[in-house]
Amino acid sequence: MKVLLCPDSFKDALDAEEAAKAMAQGIQRAAPNAITQLCPLADGGEGSLDALIAATHAERRTLTVQDALGRPRQAAWGWLSEQRTAFIELAEASGLQHLTHAERSALHTTTFGVGELFLAALDAGATHALLLLGGSATNDAGAGMLQALGATLLDAQGQPLPPGGGALQQLATLDLSTLDPRLAELRVEAAVDVDNPLLGERGASAVFGPQKGATDADVATLDRALGHFADLTAKALGRDDRELPGAGAAGGMGFAAHCFLNATLTPGIEMIMQQANFAQLLNDADLVITGEGRLDGQSLAGKTPIGVSRAAKRQGKPVIVLAGSLGDGWQACTEEGVTAAFALADGLMTLEQALPRTAELLADRCESIARLWLASR
């Protein structure tokens, strides 16, 4: 019995590696001779850097950068020296998790720290970078990152533009000629887990702004500001990418990555599975178990369990999904290769009661799955 254990993180409870280890404990209780392969995964959001480092054994480096409010913080990034490849997670520098609820301010938060991580990668000699977009506290369409990388953004009085998406309303000059010239030799892939455009009802501001502290009035302001930024960008580049699927990811960082870093936008789970050599691991497995905090209809947009299930379906491998909860529309996931899905709770319990028991519940479910698998054989 060869079991591939490839969960995402269970938010506020376990990271992906901890979840995989808990799963393995349950399998071993029922089947001591089973071969378990642990492959922690992520979909481009928070925790993706850890998953990439675990999958590739990259070196973990740290750098003092500005957080989303301009304060210093230690941000991690990954470095594969032989491949001259850097792993940069936006949330490490500009993540929502680093701000208290009262500090969330979509009008003023900046991606400047992400640009500082790119500079560190360039200083190390990077020729390839994987940019992980997710968990952002920002809605500045990458303007802060551009400033850190040397671009000139000025208002009508010729003054440097202050941080934040709201300030983009005052942008009068966008000069890309001052960008760090080393960027021309850097191949960038950006991991996204949404397909939203930059603007409008499905845009960055309307869909994701409220969770970053934006009021209804702020959303309208930000949408106008990002629209103005897109106008100036189109004039500077000679093309208009505001409708690009994924442009609205991470407060418009998908737009910035594509326009200014010439990045390709890739579903995050596919990028991370490729780096983890997932196809080969899958080929060697009899059974696949994955999971994350919630499985529902929205998971079809590119969440980890669906990425795993689609890959497994191509190889005819059964996939079990373990989730903290099963939400509306989860049944549609069976059409994407999910063989069966189970919620973790073993009785009535609140979220507060369930979180500290997540490892225990994962192990118990995996023990039951292994016993059922062995009985069926």
TrEMBL record:
<dbReference type="InterPro" id="IPR018193">
    <property type="entry name" value="Glyc_kinase_flavodox-like_fold"/>
</dbReference>
<dbReference type="GO" id="GO:0008887">
    <property type="term" value="F:glycerate kinase activity"/>
</dbReference>
<dbReference type="GO" id="GO:0031388">
    <property type="term" value="P:organic acid phosphorylation"/>
</dbReference>
<comment type="similarity">
    <text>Belongs to the glycerate kinase type-1 family.</text>
</comment>
<keyword id="KW-0808">Transferase</keyword>
<dbReference type="InterPro" id="IPR036129">
    <property type="entry name" value="Glycerate_kinase_sf"/>
</dbReference>
<dbReference type="InterPro" id="IPR018197">
    <property type="entry name" value="Glycerate_kinase_RE-like"/>
</dbReference>
<dbReference type="Pfam" id="PF02595">
    <property type="entry name" value="Gly_kinase"/>
</dbReference>
<keyword id="KW-0418">Kinase</keyword>
<dbReference type="InterPro" id="IPR004381">
    <property type="entry name" value="Glycerate_kinase"/>
</dbReference>
<protein>
    <submittedName>
        <fullName>Glycerate kinase</fullName>
    </submittedName>
</protein>
